[in-house]
Design a protein that fits this description.
Blueprint: E1 3-9, H1 15-19, E2 25-29, E3 36-44, H2 46-63, H3 68-79
Antiparallel strand pairs: 1-3, 2-3
Helix pairs in contact: 2-3
Protein name: Pre-mRNA-processing-splicing factor 8 U5-snRNA-binding domain-containing protein
Organism: Nymphaea colorata (pocket water lily)
GO cellular component, one term: catalytic step 2 spliceosome
Amino acid sequence: CGFEVRILPKIRITQEAFSNTKDGVWKLQNEQTKEETAIAFLRVDDEHMKVFENRVRQILMSSGSTTFTKIVNKWNTALI
């Protein structure tokens, strides 16, 4: 799959760590009460990062004088 998501409940995290979010980290909240209940951590392995980088490089190298819109569409497809 190339990635993993870890979800830690708010109870198991120190308040400092809960308030200090960065890339690949999302605060999860209860939809009804709007209380923040957990944090989700996303990690992508190095091999799949390189595959993605190579795909983006291939898109840019093959673009030539293609319009920006076409390049963006290829980029969005690569993300999916």
